[in-house]
Amino acid sequence: MTPSRGELALVGNDVVDLGDPDNRESFARPGYVERVCTPAERRVLEAAEDPERLFWCFFAAKEAAYKLLVKLGEEPGLSHRRIEVAADLGSSRYDDREIALSVGHADSWVHALASIGPAAPRFEVSELGEHARASAAGRDLLCRMASEVLGVSGDALSVERRPSATSYDGFEPPRLCEKGVPTGLDVSLSHDGRFVAAALAVRRG
Amino acid sequence: MSMSEQQVFEKVVSIIKPFAKAPEALAAASMETSILKDLKVNSARLVDVVLEIEDAFEIEVKDEDADKVKTIGDAVKLILAAQA
Question: What ipTM does the predicted assembly reach?
Answer without folding.
Answer: 0.92
